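It would be a great kindness if you could assist me with a short task in structural biology. The matter concerns a single protein, recorded as an amino acid sequence and a row of backbone structure tokens. The record follows directly beneath this note:
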Amino acid sequence: MRWWSVANFASNAGTWMQLTVQNLLVLQITGSAAATGLSMSVQAAPALFMSLLGGTAVDRWPLKLTAAVSQALLGAVAFTTAVLVAMDRLDMTSLMVLAAVTGVIATVDGPACALLGNDLVPVEDVPSAIGVGALVHNAGRLVGTALAGVTVGFLGTASAYAANGLSFLFVTAVIPFLRPAPGAVRHAAHVKAAPRPEGGASAPDMTVRQGLRFFARRPRLVALAAVTGISAIFGRNYGLTLAVLVTGPLAGGAGSFGTVSTVLAVGGILGAVLGARLRRPSVRLVGMLAASGALLQVAAGLSPSLAVLLVLVLPMAIVESVSDTAGTAVLQTDPPAHLRGRVLGVWSSIGTLWGLGGPPALGLLMEQAGARGALVTGGLIIAATIGAGFALRSRRTPAPVVLPTKDGDITGRAALDTAA
């Protein structure tokens, strides 16, 4: 697990270095901010349509081999881009094609690497492993973003893509040496596949449809999707809402927003550390944390000064990070092992839909209500929706059934009453 965490840190740092440089590269090629957004959408779009297939592949194929091959392919794409940049042969069309290929590979790589990390630790430590993964992700994001400017300044744009390619190869080299700890739950692809019915047809529980059916019929996963969705649409996009709040009503500049962003990043790391200590995460906990974060968002929208906002931003980021860690732990541990890849595929499609639709909806809300109004209104909507969900769930709690006692009744009636 230590080797896996080090490898993921290197890979995350390289990925964020490339993403940062890629935005600058698109601006350099086209001079258009819209083209920059388009390149990001092209890379994210495959997750909307192909994540279910990617999750199915993860459930069917050997997990370590799948993760190693997908990491190697991502490295090949990064090296190809580096060569094209170094030769000054990269145009917008080839960049879009490479971004789309990266997105397709990521539909398999994402769930494969997530589940591989969980398979390394005993089942009771999976929430902690997910928290460590979140910590590694946030740390890699900070380091990669910071290194992007330094790398480009000293070695050129192509070097950032080459460094990312090397980070993928490092992960590929580590994977064959990973060994699960005693008590770890083996993923479906590690063990013998489910028995095939007579006639040689594929087992029904290895189909895409089975993953969709399981997700739709699992109330706690549907509730988790609802909580995360409402939070993603009306909250969380702090890079947008807080930027407008700081530079608008609070009369700050780019430096002030940079300070806010740093505090958000620190809060995310602290939240990941706290999330790693969770032993029994639940959807109820995710909902409570999301509602708490929403109320903090309301308070942030009413902040009279930048100093007050900074005081509120830190707990906002901590609560969001712990909530994300708890939700991810539920998502990755609730389904049976042979369905986890497909459940992650469903989740990736839903999350991509929120990611594409949330910012425009929030931007429209800010146009109508302003930055303060968007934060306050969004926070109240989140808290009210989650509160209504808790109220409905408590009203649906079934009452115990008591069987009437009759003369000459069977023995153990009290025990049967309890069972009923």
